[in-house]
Amino acid sequence: MLETTFALRKTSQQVDNEITEWLAGTAGSPARLQILVLLWAATGSGTPHKEIVAALSVTRATVSGLMAALEREGLVKSAASTDDRRNLLATLTPRGKAVVEKSIAANTSRLRAAFRSLSPAELTTFNALLQRVRDGFAASASAANK
Q1: How many independent structural domains does the chain possess?
Q2: Contact predicate 36/27, CB 8 Å
C-alpha cells in the first residue's frame, strides 16, 4: 500500500505540474479552469457559489478569492440571487467563454496524447478506481476525526 501511495502521489504531482503548465497561456490554473468549465456547462440563471465550493472540494474563502480574480479579469460575473440575497450566483462572460473554449481547443490533443494508451473502457474503470481511492481516503479521515 505504501508503494501505491507513493506512486499515486508522484503521478498526481506530475499531472498537476503538466496541466498547470498547459493552462498558463489560457485559464491560468486547474482550479480556475474548473470554475470556468463549470459555468460554461451550466444552464439557467447562474451557478451558486456554494456549488462551486462543492465541485472543487475547497473552502468558501478559496472560491471567493478565485472568483474575485476571475471577476477582475472580466471572465465571470457574480450577483445576488433574487430568491435569497445571501446566495451569490456566478455566470460566465463572453470573454470567459472565449477563454474556456481556447483552453479546451489548446489542450484536447495533449489530453488525448496523455491518455492514448487507455481504451474508453479502461478510462471508465480508471475513473471508478480513482473515486474508490478518494472515498477510502475520505472514510479514513472521517474515522480519524472521531
Answers
A1: 2
A2: yes
